[in-house]
From TrEMBL:
Protein name, per record: Uncharacterized protein
Organism lineage: Eukaryota, Metazoa, Spiralia, Gnathifera, Rotifera
WD repeat start-end pairs: 218-258, 259-299
InterPro entries, A to Z: WD40/YVTN_repeat-like_dom_sf, WD40_repeat_dom_sf, WD40_rpt
Alphabetical GO biological process terms: proteasome-mediated ubiquitin-dependent protein catabolic process; ubiquitin recycling
Species this protein is from: Brachionus calyciflorus
Amino acid sequence: MDDLIIILPCEYEAQFKYLKNEEQNEINCSVCKNHMIDVRECFEMTRNKFTIKQRELELEMNDFSIMRKDFITKKDELKLNIRKKSDDVINQIDCRREEVKLAMNKLIDDYYFDLLETIRIRTSNIESNLDQKLQEIEQYEILNIAKDSDITSKIELLTNNLDQTQKLTESLKKLLTDPNQDDKIEFYFSNNYKYNIDEMFGRIEPDSNVQYKKIGKLIGHNDFVSCFESINKDKILSGSSDKTIKLWNKTTGECLKTFYGHKDSVNTLCLINDEEFLSGSFDRTIKYWNINRKQCLKTFNVNEYYYSDFKM
């Protein structure tokens, strides 16, 4: 670049290196010495601008050729580095999986033993109450009627004895039917619980080079939506924790069909063609569907409790 010939305003020539190193923008012409030269304007002259750009391109192409050769030589090494970094992330995910499993197992076990302790205490209280009632029943005796009592007093005492005996008899019936009647121990649970697995486990951030644009909203599911599959350009399938699969019109947002059959959350979909697809669920089944007939053609039972995806 330094040996590049620059045409001066006076039509004389000078090397680029003598002009670029000048600290001042305006200098005396070093050739004819009869005028001042604005260095920036000199470089912006059409002929000089073309010459400078041409040399810059030559130098850049030279660097590019060297780098391209180096890139081609190291292509396999670069791919190896990419795979190594991906493997490192996979190892992190594997470690995180074990950490979450241990944490969840401990959380579940701690809660399990808390439930057992609650049952033990409640059972002990129920047994104590039962013992008190049995003691009361064993010690129960009707009040004796004094011989010298008048008839009205005798009737009143008999009535009281009868009422008390009836109450104890009814209490005995209930105890014999269900000794836990006053404090039943029952266990409730739901398969429709919600959880935020990506917050608990972790996630891969979206590709920063991909630009996302909101084009609409599909409203209809009653729970978390876990999977999508596009059908041609204007339809989309969605699977949800509400146990259903829905077919949508992408443009209008209208729900065209709803597919029922799974007994637990639908967590993966696989499109076979524009008329058929597969769905996988936490109910340990894979279902084979016909879209036009809105019908499940076949159900496959699987042994694994959880799988995240399948492809044709």
